Amino acid sequence: MPFSRTLALMVAATALSSGVSAQTAGQQAASPAEASAVAHPDLWPRLPLKRQRDPKVEARVEQILSKMSIEDKVGQLIQVDIASITPKDLETYKLGSILNGGNSAPNNDEFAPAPEWLKLFDAFYDASAKRSDGRPQVPLIWGTDAVHGANNIVGATLFPHNIGLGAARDPELIRKIGAATAAETAATGIDWSFAPTVAVVQDDRWGRTYESYSEDPAIVESYAGKMVEGIQGSVGGDFMKPGHVISSIKHFLGDGGTGGRDQGDTRVSEEVLRDVHAAGYRSGLVAGALTVMPSFSSWNGTKMTGNKSLLTGVLKDKLGFDGFTIGDWNAHGQVPGCNNEDCPAAINAGLDMFMYSGAGWKQLYANTLREAKDGTIPAARLDDAVRRILRVKLLAGSFEAGRPSSRPVSGKFDLIGSPEHRAIARQAVRESMVLLKNNGSLLPLKPGANILVAGRGADNIGQQAGGWSITWQGTGVTNANFPNGQSIWAGIDEAVRAGGGKAVLAVDGSYSAKPDAAIVVFGETPYAEFTGDRPTLEYSPEDKSDLALLKKLKAAGVPVVAVFLSGRPLWVNPEMNAADAFVAAFLPGTEGGGVADVLIAGRDGKPRHDFHGKLSFSWPKRLDQYVLNKRDANYDPLFPIGYGLTYAQGATVPVLSEARPAVAAGDQNALFVRGRVVAGARLDVAGAVQQSRVDRAAQEDSLRFTFAGTGPASAAIEEAKPIDITRESNGQLSLLVDYRVTQAPTAEVLLGMEGGKPATVPITGALKGTLGEWRQLAVPLRCFADGGVTMASVTKPWTLATTGKLGLDISSIRIASAPPGPVSCGMR
């Protein structure tokens, strides 16, 4: 059946299975009669915008525009990832912008120090400024995802992710965080932040839930304008003064209503789209946001990047937005009739600037230029887009700013991770934690106590920071990569010693002398965007070691405080039952000491800080409660939105049900787990290949392949139904294989993928290392896409072939973000 109809049925089924009434489901899902994707601007409000047109700016825009060639104009419509372009290219192609994507950095080094970022921007800027034809020199601007601090920069202050900030209920704190983030971003010369995200998430299975302030539109609206003011400055005051950068409200519109699937389809009426999902724009646009990023997602089956009724009719014409729209990562290529290198439909719908990553940006330029010349893109639409881009650059002071390193704040690297900014972040940590359980008034822990600190998240700044923390996925980092950060363990140790007590770190919970209490820090490991999409809300369904640790301590009579790190509310009833106190810390960022500020009492035995946070998302009672709406008569969460205990006002949480209803589960990107193919796929071998089970971390959790070398032989994972990994390929994910060589190859070994047609890459070189060592191989999905595989219909996501001898143990095969560092299409 058609995809849109399938999703509509899924929404209805989800509503029934999660205890959400038919009324609520009807409020969220559009009925067939309502399922139009054409907006009606007359139904939308006209906003009281604080920033009004400046006649002097408008006159200058027209003056510059009149002197630009059509080639100049088309160049302004294109932004290219720094991994796909060199400064030299900008001597010829006068593009409007560059960006660093999630995994892009100077010298291909995600751990490059701040001066290298500024140095690279100078190089790009200098090349773009070279002109000898007398036409206007329009400054290049650099965009970055500074979503919880200047999170690409080593040493930056990383604030709690938005879900935690929503629990803080402190709009003025949000403004301070925006200003601090802008200052640290500006110190590297970068002048544009793709923030804030103002999604109103309605299904917590979505991997971007932590980027949302709340499921409640009122909370999102109260924050969006303050964050814009912090980033850009206040209209009529310090607007775009040195130390402030351009903001981008995202993702327009309805990205939080896609049924828990990234880049999905929001099936709602126009009234719900306006009243719920547009909440952040009601304050963010009023505050003067200069750019807006349309969403990857769709509304009632139509891609937002190609929806003229919303981008032009609503956003620009009715709401009055006069900045420019910037596409998401190659999102224009998903508009019907388009590909990444050719999409006039997006421009004609109201997209003003493409965001492009890949080798074909010159093709995008050439195609767009041709279409501008032949009228496919009307001259008036081209001029409108360029006029908007020029307006933003003038308002941002880009024309006067000059070379990045010459700007007032550029090079002030002491701003990055400064004590003032860290103090703001620590306050945010204190305010964002929510106390869900404190039976027996175990918290705050008394001074002078002997405290055991355990759990995999205790001394792990990367885990407490989550995704978008130096690396896109937040993976592949260590505490050393956060020189200005403090782990939760370090903060607890400091606080306990200050109170005259003793803290001991033992990740596995072991101890020689029985402690007075244990703090166990555990939770989700980092992820970003679609890699974080989940089939249910059960915490860690395949690994119950955290639960086992809690139970072990409780059985030993040790009072247990659970500090739970997560990017969303999750079903943790068993873990909560095994703890005396339970704290939802969400993703607190780099200031782990803020956790200790609340958990550990002062020397006088009184709390140094009480709990402040209140849930901004409903906490599920069951693992299948994906959608919880407080406006529904049958609203039945474990803890409602607004819940949060304090030391002054506590409550006892009874033993919770641990029943697990049968629900559909599965992750198509996990191909081979614990030595076995996942449900819905099978393992095929051809030729002389033997298989046997071996141990890695657990009994028989890996599979040994022994190729006899008597002729062509292969192994392959074959899907029962083709899988669509288009978004994973577009998102620059890789095929990751955890392997150990037991017999070196005697002939070329090819790793492949098949969909429509096969494609392979040589990996022989990767298999010639030291025998017996577990390693990980990462091959970008683009290697297979470039080889002709149809990524929307992959039938064999992993193949391995050789004619020679080879011994290989494999424990895991999955599609995920590659570890930091260069990756290539094979090694011979």
Write up what this structure looks like.
This protein has about 850 residues and is α/β, with parallel strands linked by helices. It is built from 23 helices and 29 strands. Strands 18, 19, 21, 22, 24, 27 and 29 form a 7-stranded antiparallel beta sheet that branches. Helix 6 (about 160-170) packs across helix 16 and helix 18 (about 490-500) packs across helix 21. The longest helix has 17 residues, at about 380-395. It is globular and about 80 Å long.
Descriptive labels:
828 residues; alpha/beta; seven-stranded antiparallel beta sheet; six-stranded mixed beta sheet; 23 helices
Shape: globular
Our estimate of the beta-strand percent is 15-25%
What's the total helix number?
Answer: 23
Helix content: 25-40%
* Average pLDDT figure: 93
Query: Distance N terminus to C terminus?
Result: 44 Å
Assembly category: single chain
Largest sheet: 7 strands, antiparallel
- Rg over alpha carbons: 27 Å
Strand elements, count: 29
Give start-end ranges of low-pLDDT stretches.
1-28
Q: Structural class given helices, strands, pairing?
A: alpha/beta
